[in-house]
Design goal:
It is built from nine helices and seven strands. With 258 residues, it is mainly alpha-helical. The protein has two domains: 86 residues, DNA polymerase, domain 1 (Orthogonal Bundle); 131 residues, no CATH class. The two termini are 22 Å apart.
């Protein structure tokens, strides 16, 4: 916290710009009636971070973005001695407070750099040091052109062995696309999925086996989160708590659990 405070003191102007965009996009548009929720006939005021979390999920931001925003907002409040943002002044935040436009601000020039591309020899060297699940993932990244998080979030239903293709959902720019399934990983991937399915069926017998569904599909299709097709291709080796729900235990993707 000491390092964070020192950073904040030395970069006060940057800090104001950062929270200007966070609060103006997530909180400033709340109406008075949005600040209260009915519970047992009485009005109950939810906490600030709950409001932010609900707004983020309404916009379908990723769980990583949600954690990052909440973490920085929490640090911001702690830096100001736990003072609620609505009680702060224009020099601190913009929770429903009009600020002058950011005049006299010079944009940093974006440096243009050429991408680094591995040679075939370098790719072979990398793949030679991978095995098991990580080898399959490496082949998908290189052979199918998947980005890292696209590979991690891949669902079973989006792999079509008959057509030898993979459907990438919610990729860059929130767009879907279809790419090829490398022939050399068909058999290893089949074997991997068979092992994962056995674990999933065992989880179901023990009352677990649920997975996160995007865009409110869990409310529309009540049992879909237990279906095999919706499971992650690369699940973790242990059960984890879904950070978006009230303590639901589920099998998240490979990098969901540290």
């Amino acid at each position: 916290m000491k390092d964070i405070n020192q950073f904040t003191k030395n970069n006060d102007q940057s800090r104001r710009f950062y929270f200007f965009f966070i609060y103006s996009s997530l909180i400033a548009h709340f109406q008075p009636q949005d600040l209260y929720s009915e519970e047992k006939g009485a009005k109950m005021k939810p906490k600030l971070l709950d409001l932010v979390r609900n707004k983020i999920r309404l916009r379908h931001y990723s769980i990583r973005t949600e954690k990052t925003y909440l973490d920085w907002i929490r640090r911001f409040i702690l830096f100001h001695n736990k003072k609620h943002p609505k009680d702060m002044g224009a020099a601190e935040e913009v929770l429903g407070i009009e600020l002058p436009w950011l005049n006299n601000v010079r944009r940093a020039k974006k440096t243009e750099r050429l991408p680094v591309v591995f040679s075939r020899k370098e790719i072979k060297a990398v793949m030679a040091n991978l095995d098991g699940v990580h080898w399959i993932m490496g082949q998908l990244l290189y052979g199918a052109g998947l980005r890292l998080m696209e590979c991690v979030r891949l669902r079973v239903k989006d792999i079509d062995f008959d057509y030898r293709q993979i459907t990438v959902r919610d990729g860059k720019g929130k767009k879907d696309r279809v790419t090829m399934l490398p022939k050399m990983i068909e058999v290893p991937l089949h074997q991997h999925l068979e092992k994962a399915r056995i674990i999933h069926e065992q989880d179901l017998k023990e009352g677990y086996g649920e997975v996160y569904l995007p865009f409110g599909l869990e409310r529309k299709y009540r049992q879909a989160n237990k279906e095999w097709g919706w499971q992650y291709v690369f699940p973790v080796k242990k059960r984890s708590l879904d950070p978006r729900s009230e303590g639901t235990t589920s099998m998240e993707n490979l990098f969901s659990v540290p």
